[in-house]
Design brief:
Layout: H1 2-20, H2 23-28, E1 30-37, H3 47-54, E2 62-77, E3 80-93, E4 99-112, E5 115-125, H4 127-130
Parallel strand pairs: 1-5
Antiparallel strand pairs: 2-3, 3-4, 4-5
Length: 136
């Protein structure tokens, strides 16, 4: 139970850093060789690739954006942690209306000497899980 509580605290730090625009704090929670499959990227990236992608959401292009996790579950065993939930990506590109994208996500975390760090992150649009879910 203590490990799961520590894992949740690390997740909330990651979430809070992104929400407040503390990008150095956000990137510091992610391992350099993390495996990231983002919902609008066609390829797997590491932390640097994700940094390049998030750079697209700059103030010159976007007025604001937010990643809002919901119904999050935490499991931790030894040095490994697992986080799963749903999230809403909410963004406002300049000159356009708001975009809302419901997502499902999973994350793998590693407990290191300096604390929990994100080792993998996969998120995909909810519609991808329900469109044509049954054969035929």
């Amino acid at each position: 139970m203590i490990l799961a509580t520590e894992l949740e605290a690390a997740f909330r730090r990651l979430e809070g850093a992104l929400a407040t625009g503390d990008l150095p704090g956000f990137w510091g929670m992610i391992l350099p060789d993390a495996v990231i499959l983002d919902e609008d990227l066609p390829i797997r990236v590491d932390r640097q690739g994700f940094q390049d992608h998030i750079g697209f959401h700059s103030p010159e292009v976007w007025e604001n954006f937010a990643w809002k996790p919901m119904a999050v579950r935490f499991v931790a065993r030894g040095g490994a942690g697992f986080v799963a939930g749903s999230a809403m990506f909410r963004g406002k590109p300049r000159g356009s209306g708001y975009r809302l994208r419901p997502l499902l996500f999973t994350q793998g975390w590693s407990k290191l000497a300096e604390g929990w760090r994100l080792a993998s992150w996969q998120q995909s649009p909810l519609v991808g899980h329900v469109t044509k879910a049954s054969p035929g």
